[in-house]
Amino acid sequence: MKIKDSFNDKTGIAKIILQTKNGSFTGIAKIHPDDKPYSNKFFGLVLAEIRAYIKSLKKEISITKTKRKAIYSLKKDYVKDEFFNKLPKTIQKYIFKKLDEHLSCYSNIIDNKEQEINLLEEEIINKIKIKDKLNLKIQDKIK
């Protein structure tokens, strides 16, 4: 959810602040000085929003890695726990199976978010390339 955006015409800096359940994330984009005559604030705001969203995804990955690490730790503690080792083997296996399911789920979430980040970073590059081509066409028509 976007909560604030701004664009400074003088500096060419676009800024977006996204508020998520994991906090506020700021994305910034600056128009290259050569592009100022041909760019507009909307392009900068789009890039800034993507960058803020990438930051939020990285935070989600960090949180998920922390949860995954806690489950690994729990598994290690169970192996050493005297009470746990007195439980029937079927119960132990069931508990480890459920923990492994959580680990697998967290690993999948991390992988998916990392893939999403890679796609978004590629999207930024592609948008810049398209903008550069448009700027060249505009420059050619002006000449």
Quick synopsis:
The protein is of the alpha+beta class. It has a single domain (2-142), classed as Rv1738 (Double Stranded RNA Binding Domain, 2-Layer Sandwich).
Strand-helix topology:
Blueprint: E1 2-8, E2 13-20, E3 23-30, H1 41-80, H2 82-86, H3 89-142
Antiparallel strand pairs: 1-2, 2-3
Overview of the structural elements:
69% of the residues lie in helices and 16% in strands. It has a single domain (2-142), classed as Rv1738 (Double Stranded RNA Binding Domain, 2-Layer Sandwich). It is elongated, with a radius of gyration of 24 Å. The protein is of the alpha+beta class. Helix 1 (41-80) runs antiparallel to helix 3 (89-142). Strands 1-2-3 form a 3-stranded antiparallel beta sheet.
Task: Tell me the fraction of residues in β-strands, as a range.
Answer: 15-25%
Query: Which descriptor suits the 3D outline?
Result: elongated
- In DSSP terms (H or I, runs of 4 or more residues), the helix count works out at 3
CATH superfamily: Rv1738
Count of folded domains: 1
Largest sheet: 3 strands, antiparallel
Write down the secondary-structure element order: EEEHHH
As a percent range, the share of helical residues equals 55-70%
Q: What is the rounded Rg?
A: 24 Å
CATH topology-level name: Double Stranded RNA Binding Domain
